[in-house]
Every structure is written in structure tokens, then in C-alpha cells.
Amino acid sequence: MRAAIIRANSLGGLFSFKFIRNIKSMSSSSSSQDFVSRPVIKKVFAKLQKEGDGAVVRRGISRSEQKLLDPFLMLDEFSVSPPAGFPDHPHRGFETVTYVLEGGITHQDFKGHKGTIYAGDVQWMTAGRGIIHSEMPEEEVNKGLQLWINLSSNEKMIEPNYQELSHSDIPKAEQNGVEVKVIAGESMGIQSPVYTRTPTMFLDFTLQPGAQIHQNVPESWNAFAYVLESGEGGGVFGSSNSSPVSAHNVVVFGPGNDGVSVWNKSSSKKLRFVLIAGEPIGEPVVQYGPFVMNTQAEIDMTIEDYHYGKNGFEMAKYWRSQ
């Protein structure tokens, strides 16, 4: 019974605000003059798989990509309808970012928090030393993204924390056929209010036919894109003569250079993708389902803490979502 709970996926978050971390060198430009893009080194098609209780996800990042994309652990594009969902399950040692694209997700945790996020809303959950929560669909069709971001060893056991942005609070900019929603980091001169313990950029771009974007990314960071919508011949990444990339693909960029260049070469369809980048932590990663630590001994201790309800999991034996 507990093994089934441990394997359950997460889609969670709650409410509070933190001050923004000021990250420089993240502006973007619609001009390619003097801009050197990172090359594309890998493409991964996100295949459908079952997760949670009857839900379906496309897993774009899994353990095989973790070394290339430190600090990122997982990216899922989820689709869930009642009565399926993500019932009570624990986390420790990392953060989850939930971005709802359609419908809504209702969440609650063992500390008494409860709320619903709807299309365009974001919740950034720091699991820290331990959280148990549920995420269940609010409407008939519910879709979105969930990103897992690792925490450094000195932050894995901090108290849980939550940030929340409604769609109206997310900064947006538009120029030359390019629209960006700045979930974390900075683009086109605007900055997100989200505080990122592990420095992170999370941008939602929409390019009209014929548009292009050249987004700066700090040189030492790892970066990837996930394509949400693309017309025939549309999304071209890294180099203008590269092969187009269709929806549900992860595009992994190599290191260095100024940042990332993207072109929409479709004659009629928009291109929508998220660009995600982060500062590598450079520490060992040992993962057991929803627990992510640095050593196997820490994982063993986490399982014991969860089983016996201690060190952050005190309510594990008593709490059940409503």
C-alpha cells in the first residue's frame, strides 16, 4: 500500500509570496545580429504513460536526461479528468512547479492548506523536509505541465513553502510577433516575482508565423525547451537550417554561447513552447519515487521518517484529503 503511494506523481502547490531573486543577463531580442545560439544536442519525444490514479502524462524529462539537465529532475505534460487524479502522496528534497494550461487542479495538504489553480495559473511548491498532499481535477478536461527542480543539500530539509501566481499576475510582453509569459526569470525587459532557490528561468513563448526569438541564458546554466504547439515545418531551434520540431518534444541545448534562438517557419500556425533553464547544482542525485536526496542513506532515512511519521512527516499516519 505504501509502495503505491510512494510511486504516485505530484501536481501540487499552495499559497504564499516571496521576493524576487534578481537574475541578470536574461533579456531577449527579436534580432539575430551578433547573437550566437546554443546548439541542439538531443531531442526527446514525450511518450504517454499512466501516472497517479488513472491519469495520463507525457514524460519529457526522466532520469536519463538528469545529468544533461541538472538541476531539473522531471517534466510531465499531464491530462486528467474525474474521477482520475493524484491522490495523497509525499515529497521530500526538491520543488515542483505546476502550470495549468486548461481546466483546474484542486490541491490540499496535511498542514491544512487547500485551493484551486486554473488555466494560466502557476504554483511553485518547495517540498523541503516533507509534505503530503493531493491534486485532483476540478473540471472535465484538465491539462498542464509539472516540472521538478532539485534543491541543494543545504536546502533539502528546509520547511515547506509555496508561491502562487494567477494568470493575471504573470508578467507578459509582446513584440514583433512574439509573446512571452515570464513565469520565472526575465525576458523582454520584464521580470517574474517568483523567488527561485535554485536559480531558474521558466518562459512560455508564442511565436506567430514567421517570427523568431533570441533569448539570453546565463552561460553556465543548462537549458531545454518543450514544444506545446507547432504547425507543419514550424518550430526550428538552435540553427535556422535545423529540422523542425513537432509538439510534445523536448529540445536539449548544449552549453555556452549567448542563449537560445527559435524560429517559427510555419506559414499559418503559431508555435508555442516553454523555455526552461537553471543553474546546475553539481551534487549527487539519489531518487526513490517522490523522494530526492544526495545519498542512499538519506533515502533510507526518508522512508523511515515517512513510515513512522517523524522529521517533517508527523501527520502522515492521521491525515487524509477530503
By secondary-structure content and strand pairing, the structural class works out as mainly beta
Helix and strand element order: HEEEEEEEEEEEEEEEEEEEEEEEEEEH
DSSP strand (E) fraction? over 45%
Which residues sit in consecutive blocks of at least 5 with pLDDT less than 50?
Answer: 1-26
Calculate the terminal CA-CA distance, rounded to whole Å. 19 Å
- The CATH topology assignment is Jelly Rolls
- CATH homologous superfamily heading: Jelly Rolls
CATH class division: Mainly Beta
Strand order of the largest sheet: 2-22-20-24-18-15-14
Quick one: how many beta strands?
26
- Main sheet summary: 7 strands, antiparallel
Shape: globular
Q: From the alpha-carbon coordinates, what is the Rg to the nearest angstrom?
A: 19 Å
What count of structural domains? 1
Number of helices: 2
The whole-number mean of residue pLDDT values reads 89
Helix share, percent: under 10%
CATH architecture assignment name: Sandwich
Pfam family, one: Pirin_C
GO molecular function: metal ion binding
GO cellular component, one term: nucleus
Subcellular location: Nucleus
